[in-house]
Amino acid sequence: MDKRVIVPENRFQLLGDRLKTRFFDFMLVSVLMGIFLVPYIVWIVFMNNSSFFVPTEDNFLLIALISYAPYIPLAMIFGLGVVGALYYSKRLAFGEGANAYKDFFYGIGKNIKPALLGFFIIGLLYFSLSFGKVVIMFSELDPIVKGLLIGLMYVGFIILTMIVGFYLTQSVLYLGTTGQLMLNSVKFTFGMFGWNLLIFLIVLLPFIVIEVCSYLPESLFLIEYIFLAVCILFYFEFETFVFSIYSHAIFDLTINEDYPEIYRKGLSKKEPLE
Q1: What is the pLDDT of residue 53?
Q2: Are 123 and 73 in contact (CB under 8 A)?
Q3: Burial of 54 (0-12, 13-18, 19+ CB in 10 A)
Q4: Helix residue spans in 192-271 (DSSP H)
Q5: Measured in whole angstroms, how far is the alpha carbon of residue 2 from the centre of its chain?
């Protein structure tokens, strides 16, 4: 019997192979990530069920500050789970004998500083977005202007989150200063912006759904919780792995000529078809 291991030729095949052979590991890592999201979920449920957090013309600035400032430390907590998943995803993509549980927690310890920095920035961005929306909605601006300003805030949030995302995937792979990795991240973000935007629709799908659900009637909030359950049971690691291998593809095209030991690692040495 032929027991040769078939090595994927490109990252589409790599994704399919890992989903087929490590599906339950995807579920385990997603659940582990979900544990780090529990404080945020508790805070959101608390806000949604408390009359204190209803803004009025007299108190909207204070209420918005109290409501959304916790997003910063809560994002940093979730960021620990994200870098754990990124480290596991790197080992899984590279065929390094990944162990979901051990690599997840080892990755947190190894990458705790970039995790806290990256998600401090994301938390600050999310706080600014949420706080800014309240300020705009209570302003006397024309409704069309309000919509345009809020739309621009979402665009800015997505672009800056892309930069942080590439910073984190680099930090798992390379040694470098924060400034060097951030500068590279800016180049990656705008160098292939169209493809990046497409991939980030996958990566930010949980955020998009949660934001859309915030505008729905309370009777439809169940949709948000069902989708969150799907994310915790599978989607968190799926999106992390997708962004991880997408980042590896970009790194191969740009900086991995200086790192031949990881160029197309985990793939066959044929020319990529991606």
Answers
A1: 83
A2: yes
A3: exposed
A4: 193-203, 205-213, 221-230, 236-254
A5: 40
Per-residue CA distances from 188 to 102, 117, 168, 207, 266 (Å): 30, 19, 12, 22, 22
The pLDDT tens digits for 112-136 are 999 999 999 999 999 999 999 999 9
Token readout for 156 is 């800015």
Contact 13, 274 (CB under 8 A): no
Q: For residue 169, give the nearest of 231, 87, 253, 272 by alpha carbon.
A: 87
Coil/strand/helix, residue 63: helix
Q: pLDDT above 70 covers what percent of the chain?
A: 95
Return the pLDDT at 4: 52
| Helix (DSSP H) and strand (DSSP E) numbers for the chain | 12, 0
Helix, strand, coil distribution of the chain in percent, nearest 5: 80, 0, 20
Exposure string of 151-186, with b = 16+ CB inside 10 Å and e = fewer, is eebeeebbbbbbbbbbbbbbbbbbeeeeeebbebbe
Distance of alpha carbon 154 from alpha carbon 134, whole angstroms:
14
Mean pLDDT for 198-226 is 81
pTM over 0.85: yes
